[in-house]
Design brief:
By secondary structure, this protein is an all-alpha fold.
Length: 63
Amino acid sequence: GEEITALSWIKKTSGFLSTHTLDYVMKLQLSFLYLFGLFVMLLDHGRNTVQNLKPVKVAASAT
C-alpha cells in the first residue's frame, strides 16, 4: 500500500489549500521550531552563566 505521512495526509485532506500556502505554513512551522530551539539554548546558557557567577563556597581545610 501507499505510505501515509503527515504531509501527504495534509495534501489529501485539504485540497482547497494551494501548495504555496502549504509551503508557507511549513516554513513558518520550521521557523518557530528554530526560534524555540534558540530560546532554549539561550536559557540554558544563561543558567550556566548565573551558576558560574555565584561564589563557590570552599570548606575550611585542616592543615
